[in-house]
Structure formats: structure tokens, C-alpha cells
């Protein structure tokens, strides 16, 4: 979600003095190290490989095969065609009394070799099947005979019982697109936003690049694609995220919201207890691989590698680049309340603490009257500071406050018990949603530990939210966890009539451990200096239209491939621009506008499918640029590509577990999605989610410091545009927006969710949440 900002900002971090030293390494060495890191990751997953590496077979299948061979041998049949006799000859001769043992060992070795060969064949067959993308290019709702045959074969080779990481060793590697196709698609994408003169100049640079440099850079990428798991993902993580020296707050984090219209309990400690318990239940299922792998359109498995770092993970700052620290397990969470830090154990000798016991621990923290120590209240602001600054301060902090720092960085995740309420209010819905989103994205700048993989935020009125650091995984991963958490804490765990967690407190539990920081003078001065800039988070409003087209970033996933992450859909196409102009042209008829709309949609779908199938533009150009930097080979074309400013960054939050929510009978019990900061100082960040079948929620962000942007105004433009487009297909009947059961005139146009009605049913709509 927030990757657009990082993608824009990676180039300056690449050319800093420290980065130049790093990039002086030979490119072949870097490719070798990429492959080495890939193989180390495979070896580190040994236990997973033991459990699921033989997928789609099972360890019991070996026993069945061995038994069948033994039975055949007993019946004086030789299924090995003499191979077992040759194996017996190679085994040591332990004497006549052990002749039977040599036969059993020979049968076991032959069974193991045959079993391994069969497993390898199944893996290769499944990988070849999963490399087919013809199904993705077919029209929606249609399935050709080849695709039906392909789907049947995938189901046969996949076996019956799949676990989260079952498909990992069968996923194909992300292909390196043709460099000629990539350049052609790039030029097509910028044509609508460039003048004739600028486009001609860009075309000249592109042709020069193809003639002089492209083939060499492409050769290195092909080499890396053969050797490493993914030709771009590790570089994307390193250069776009970990080498960025900007603050994580707003630039690299994003947020996810609670239910918009309901709060299951107003008791803060109870909501925290159920939510933490639900999150740890998710972790338990994750560790046991009981979470089913995600199937795109119910057919094609996606890569699950990013799930590994959801919990027990911290981004550690460094001078030149950060690194991600992931622990195998953690039995506590770190809690922040009124400037104080606590360590709360999550397990007892009998296992995971009950929700009621966790509520008791959080209530003890809320009732603790002790004040924060000097500078402790603003300590977390350092995690929102520029990364080099935080890295230097952390080195001092690690020496003099090692235990406290380890308790926070080694926690399963971070919990912030805020002292203020949040969420949608009837009195002022627009302002209340602005404040809610701002609190989730930035808080006060010093009440979130931005380095943690995610922070669970619990407000004083029981409202929840999530702040997520972006480097370790992309939004669908945290979104999957968040859907499970909301559904579990509300529908399965539930609350008693008085709003508390169900069950009974456990008075025998020790008090939460208060963390004390012995801060050196350097840390005190730096945390105090960081606090004002951290606490003055960029305010977010809702946007305005500028009357011109701009470069537009829309993210999609490439998890069809092993360790794939994201790709950019350049959605400001010539077809989209033609449709927009037709809507502004009063001489155009509605049939003409509908035809142009369909052309724009078809073009967008083709770009989306190409990006998902590894044939996008931006990740390929990014990887080519990285290789050029390693080779110290300057390319004016690549320099221009990576100097572009994305004034509009968009992202959709997918709903992945619809079965957890009853959107028809309980439409208010769905997540309202989340949002992220703008990619450009004078641009917008727009996130949207389809809430059921009849509602779209938009989260629109921009910087208040910019005189060119206004989020509320853009929200109104989006609403008007949706109504205008929908009217083309309503036979003259206008959509009727309303806001969460309240009349439109009561709330104006800046409302939380605007379901639109037509023909007696509910059609897609919008909500502006900033």
C-alpha cells in the first residue's frame, strides 16, 4: 500500500555515499549472494520441508510403497527388476543370520529412491501446470476447454490435504520480461501525460537504451532469475525499503481500521484481551500451517512466503541500511500506555492465556498510576526519526537499556493502549474519521513503535486499529490476519453482557512487568529533539481534482510466482483519458461514453493481468536500473524513469475470507479497510475496499502542507464521478447515496460510507475516511 512512496524515494538512498560503497561490489558477486540467500532460506525451512516438502504426497505414502514392495517380494515378485539385488550386493555382509536384514534395507532404499523420484516428478509436473497463465487472460465468467483440463490436472496433482506452505516448492519463478516489450509498454504508459516534444525526447532515450545497454543488463537479470528464487523481490526489499533513510511513519507504514459502524464492547481492556488472544490464535494456526494457502479465483495457489514474518519481527535500523530480525517464538507482547512501557506475558505453563486473563493484565496497566520517567514518554519517537539518526541512538540505547529494548524488539507484536477515543461519530462524521485515520497512521508520533511488524492500537472507547510496517510483507498478508482477528474476537470469542471477556480472571498471574530505560544523555537529547517532529504528524484531508492527467500508481501482486511481491499497474491509459474527456464533452452521447468506458476497462484489465503474470513494466525497469548501478553504467533513460513522481498512488485492499463475515444479514460487521500516506508531497494516496456487494470505502490522504491538494474535495469528486459513471448504466435513474443509515442531509457529503441504491438493490459506493 505505502510502497509507492518508497518506490519514488529509493533512488536518492541508492546514491548516498554509503550506498555507493555497497554498490561497488561486482554484479556477479551480488547475484551469487542473492542466490545464496535464497538457498539459505530454503534450508532454514527444513522442518516445513519435512512436513510439506514431499507435497503432494505424504510421509505415510512412503510406508505404503515400502509395504507394497515387501509384499511383492514375499510373493516372489521383483518390482525393482533386479535393482534390489544389486543394492544388496553393495551392502556390507553381516553374516548369514542378517541376510533377511539386508533384504529389508535394500527394499527400504529402493522404496526411498522410487518414492523420491515420484515426488520429484509430481513437483515438476505441478510446477509446469502452475506456469500456465492462459486462464488469467480469458474473459471474466468464461472458461475454455484447455483451462478446464488444466484445472482438473492441478487438482489431481495437488492432492487432498494442503497446508499453508504446501505449494512453495512447486511455484514457478517469476519470468524476466522481454526488454523490448517493457520499453514499448513504458512509452505507451507515459504518452497520455507527456507533451509531443517530451514524448519524442523520451522515445529517443529509450531507443538509445535498447541499442547500447539493454542487452547487457538483461543478461545479468536472466542469470539471476536462473540462480535465485526471484530476480527482483530481494532487491525490491533491500533498495526500496531497507536502504531508505526516511522516517517510517507515513512513508513506509499503513493502517487498517476496525468495524466502521459498530464496536463490540466499550471496555478497552476487554477489547485488547480478545484481540490479542485472537492474534495469538492466528499465530498458532500459522505455526502449525493450518491456514489454507490462498487460491486466486479459487484455482491458482499464491506464494505464502510473506506469512513467515508476521509475528516476532522487528525492523532494526542501520547506518546504511536496516535489516529484518525475526525470532522463532515470543511469549510476550510489549505494551505502551501514557508514556510507559510494559512487558505482558501471553502464556502460562498450561498454554496461551485466556482472553479474560489478558483483559485482567491490560486493566492492571490502565489502573497503574505510576508516571512516566523523564524522556521515556517520547522515546518511541526515535523509531519515527530518519533511520541513520535512530541507528546511532539505538547503539547507545542497546548498551545502557538492553533488557528493555530487547523486551520491545523481541515481543510478538506491539500494543498501544491509547487514552483517547476514536471512530465514527454521528455529530461530526468527517472530522471523526479524519482523526481516527490520523491516529492509526501516525498517532502522536511517540506512542507507536514503528519498527515492529505491526502495532495493535486499542482506543479508550474500545475501538481497534492496526499500524503495519511495510518492508516485511504486503497488505494482503496483514489483511488476512486482520480479517481473522476481527471475526474471531467478535463472533467466536465474544463478550459477556457487561462488556467484559468471557471467563474468569486469574488472580495468580504476576503483575505486568514495567520496563525501565536507563537513558544515556545522547538518547535523552535525541528523543526530545525527535518528539516535536514526530508528534506533528502530517494532517490528512480529502482531495481535489487538478483538471489534468497524471502518472498513476496502482499496485497489484505477483504472488503467482515464488517469493513474488508486487507490480505497478500504470492505470492512466490513453483509453481511460479518452473516456474522461468524453464525460466532459457535452456533445458525446451516452452510448458513445459507454463504449469508451468498456474500452478503458478492457485496457485496464489487460494491464492488470499482464502485471500479475510477470509481464509488468516497473519491476523490470527497477531491476535493470539496479544492475546498471552495480556496473556503474549510466543510462539517461533509466534515470528519467526513476525520477518520475507518482502524484496519484492507489491500492485495493482485498477481502480474502468472505466466509468469516455475513455481509447480507450483518452488513455493518465488515472491516472498513485502511489507508496510507501520499507518494508525493503534492499528491494523493487512495486506498479502497469493497465492503460486501454494495459498498466501496475510500481512504484518501494528502499533505496539509501542500496548497495543491485537498482530500475532502477529491473525495467529493470521486463520489460525483462514481455517480456519473453509474448513471450511464442505470437507464436514466440516478444513484441515491446515503450514509450508514443516516440521511445524507444530516451528514453532508463527507461521510463514512455511501451505499447507493438502484433497481431495488445496492450498488457500489464510496466513503471518504480522511
Model description:
This is Palmitoyl thioesterase CPT1C. Belongs to the carnitine/choline acetyltransferase family. Residues 175-526, 545-719 form the Choline/carnitine acyltransferase domain. The protein has 770 residues and is of the alpha+beta class. 44% of the residues lie in helices and 12% in strands. The strands form six sheets. The chain has an eight-stranded mixed beta sheet with strand order 13-7-6-10-11-12-1-17, sandwiched between helices. The longest helix has 32 residues, at 99-130. The relative contact order is 0.12.
What are the key terms here?
8-stranded mixed β-sheet, globular, 5-stranded mixed β-sheet, alpha+beta, 770 residues, 12% strand, 25 helices, disordered C terminus, carnitine O-palmitoyltransferase activity
- Overall strand count: 22
Counting DSSP H or I runs of 4 or more residues, the number of helices is 25
* Portion in helices: 40-55%
For the biggest sheet, the summary is: 8 strands, mixed
Rg calculated over all Cα atoms: 28 Å
Which residue ranges are poorly predicted, with pLDDT under 50 across at least 5 consecutive positions?
A: 16-22, 531-542, 731-770
Sheet with the most strands: spatial strand order:
13-7-6-10-11-12-1-17
Inertia-based shape? globular
Question: Mean pLDDT, nearest integer?
Answer: 85
Question: Secondary-structure map with pairings?
Answer:
Blueprint: H1 3-14, H2 17-22, H3 27-44, H4 46-52, H5 59-74, H6 83-90, H7 99-130, H8 145-158, H9 179-190, H10 196-212, H11 214-227, H12 233-242, E1 253-257, H13 268-287, E2 295-296, E3 300-301, E4 313-316, E5 323-326, E6 332-337, E7 340-345, E8 347-348, E9 351-352, H14 355-367, H15 387-400, H16 402-409, E10 414-417, H17 429-441, E11 454-458, E12 464-469, H18 475-493, E13 513-515, H19 521-535, E14 552-557, E15 566-570, H20 574-584, H21 590-612, H22 618-630, H23 636-641, E16 648-652, E17 674-676, E18 684-690, E19 696-701, H24 711-727, E20 736-737, H25 744-747, E21 754-758, E22 761-766
Parallel strand pairs: 6-10, 10-11, 14-16, 16-18
Antiparallel strand pairs: 1-12, 1-17, 2-3, 4-5, 6-7, 7-13, 8-9, 11-12, 14-15, 18-19, 20-21, 21-22
Amino acid at each position: 500500500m505505502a510502497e509507492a512512496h518508497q518506490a519514488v524515494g529509493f533512488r536518492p538512498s541508492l546514491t548516498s555515499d554509503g550506498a555507493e560503497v555497497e554498490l561497488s561490489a561486482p554484479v556477479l558477486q551480488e547475484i551469487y549472494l542473492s542466490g545464496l540467500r535464497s538457498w539459505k532460506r530454503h534450508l532454514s525451512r527444513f522442518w516445513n520441508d519435512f512436513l510439506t516438502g514431499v507435497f503432494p504426497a505424504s510421509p505415510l505414502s512412503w510406508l505404503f510403497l515400502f509395504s507394497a514392495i515387501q509384499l511383492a517380494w514375499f510373493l516372489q515378485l521383483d518390482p525393482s527388476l533386479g535393482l534390489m539385488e544389486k543394492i544388496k550386493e553393495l551392502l556390507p555382509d553381516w553374516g548369514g543370520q542378517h541376510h533377511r536384514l539386508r533384504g529389508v534395507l535394500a527394499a527400504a532404499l529402493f522404496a526411498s529412491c522410487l518414492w523420491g523420484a515420484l515426488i520429484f516428478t509430481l513437483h515438476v509436473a505441478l510446477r509446469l501446470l502452475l506456469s500456465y497463465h492462459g486462464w488469467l487472460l480469458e474473459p471474466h465468467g468464461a472458461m475454455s476447454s484447455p483451462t478446464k483440463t488444466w484445472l482438473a490436472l492441478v487438482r489431481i496433482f495437488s492432492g487432498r490435504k494442503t497446508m499453508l506452505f504446501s505449494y512453495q516448492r512447486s511455484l514457478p519463478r517469476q519470468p524476466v520480461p522481454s526488454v523490448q516489450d517493457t520499453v514499448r509498454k513504458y512509452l505507451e504508459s507515459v504518452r497520455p501525460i507527456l507533451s509531443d516534444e517530451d514524448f519524442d525526447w523520451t522515445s529517443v532515450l529509450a531507443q538509445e537504451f535498447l541499442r547500447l545497454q539493454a542487452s547487457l543488463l538483461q543478461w545479468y537479470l536472466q542469470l539471476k532469475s536462473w540462480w535465485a528464487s526471484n530476480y527482483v523481490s530481494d532487491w525490491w526489499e533491500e533498495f526500496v525499503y531497507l536502504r531508505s533513510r526516511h522516517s517510517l511513519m507515513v512513508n513506509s507504514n499503513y493502517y487498517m481500521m476496525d468495524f466502521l459502524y459498530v464496536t463490540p464492547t466499550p471496555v478497552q481492556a476487554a477489547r485488547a484481551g480478545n484481540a490479542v488472544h485472537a492474534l495469538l490464535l492466528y499465530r498458532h494456526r500459522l505455526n502449525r500451517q493450518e491456514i489454507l494457502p490462498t487460491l486466486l479465483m479459487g484455482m491458482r495457489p499464491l506464494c505464502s512466503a510473506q506469512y513467515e514474518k508476521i509475528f516476532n519481527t522487528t525492523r532494526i535500523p542501520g547506518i546504511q541500511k536496516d535489516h529484518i530480525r525475526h525470532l522463532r517464538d515470543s511469549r510476550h507482547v510489549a505494551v505502551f500506555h501514557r508514556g510507559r512501557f510494559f512487558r505482558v506475558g501471553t502464556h502460562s505453563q498450561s498454554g496461551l492465556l485466556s482472553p479474560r486473563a489478558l483483559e485482567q493484565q491490560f486493566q492492571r496497566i490502565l489502573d497503574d498510576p505510576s508516571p512516566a520517567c523523564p524522556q521515556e514518554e517520547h522515546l518511541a519517537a526515535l523509531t519515527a526519526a530518519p533511520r541513520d539518526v535512530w541507528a546511532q541512538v539505538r547503539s547507545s540505547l542497546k548498551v545502557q537499556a538492553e533488557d528493555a529494548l530487547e523486551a520491545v524488539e523481541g515481543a510478538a507484536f506491539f500494543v498501544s493502549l491509547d487514552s483517547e477515543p476514536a471512530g465514527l461519530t454521528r455529530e461530526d462524521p468527517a472530522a471523526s474519521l479524519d482523526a481516527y485515520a490520523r491516529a492509526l497512521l501516525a498517532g502522536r508520533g511517540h506512542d507507536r513503535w514503528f519498527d515492529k511488524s505491526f502495532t495493535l492500537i486499542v482506543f479508550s472507547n474500545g475501538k481497534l486499529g492496526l499500524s503495519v510496517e511495510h518492508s516485511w510483507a504486503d497488505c494482503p498478508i496483514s489483511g488476512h490476519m486482520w480479517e481473522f482477528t476481527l471475526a474471531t474476537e467478535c463472533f467466536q470469542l465474544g463478550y459477556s453482557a457487561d462488556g467484559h471477556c468471557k471467563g474468569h480472571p486469574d488472580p495468580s498471574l504476576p503483575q505486568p512487568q514495567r520496563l525501565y530505560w536507563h537513558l544515556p544523555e545522547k538518547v535523552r537529547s535525541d528523543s526530545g529533539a525527535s518528539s516535536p517532529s514526530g508528534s506533528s504528524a502530517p494532517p490528512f484531508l480529502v482531495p481535489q481534482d487538478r483538471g489534468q492527467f497524471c502518472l498513476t500508481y496502482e499496485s497489484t501482486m505477483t504472488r503467482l510466482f515464488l517469493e513474488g511481491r508486487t507490480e505497478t499497474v500504470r492505470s492512466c491509459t490513453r483509453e481511460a483519458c479518452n473516456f474522461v474527456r468524453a464525460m466532459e464533452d457535452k456533445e458525446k452521447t451516452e452510448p458513445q461514453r459507454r463504449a469508451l468506458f468498456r474500452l478503458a476497462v478492457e485496457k485496464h484489465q489487460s494491464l492488470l493481468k499482464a502485471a500479475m503474470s510477470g509481464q509488468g513494466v516497473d519491476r523490470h525497469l527497477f531491476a535493470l536500473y539496479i544492475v546498471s548501478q552495480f556496473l556503474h553504467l549510466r543510462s539517461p533513460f533509466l534515470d528519467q524513469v526513476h525520477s518520475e513522481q507518482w502524484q496519484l498512488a492507489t491500492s485495493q485492499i482485498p477481502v480474502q475470507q468472505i466466509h468469516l463475515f455475513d455481509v447480507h444479514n450483518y452488513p455493518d460487521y465488515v472491516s472498513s479497510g485502511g489507508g496510507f500516506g501520499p507518494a508525493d508531497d503534492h499528491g494523493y494516496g487512495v486506498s479502497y475496499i469493497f465492503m460486501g456487494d454494495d459498498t466501496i470505502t475510500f481512504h484518501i490522504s494528502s499533505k496539509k502542507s501542500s496548497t495543491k491538494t485537498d482530500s475532502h474535495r477529491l473525495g467529493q469528486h470521486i463520489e460525483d464521478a462514481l455517480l456519473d459513471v453509474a448513471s450511464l448504466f442505470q437507464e436514466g435513474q440516478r444513484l441515491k447515496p446515503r450514509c450508514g443509515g443516516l440521511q445524507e442531509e444530516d451528514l453532508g457529503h463527507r461521510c463514512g460510507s455511501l451505499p447507493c441504491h438502484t433497481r431495488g438493490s445496492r450498488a457500489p459506493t464510496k466513503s471518504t475516511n480522511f
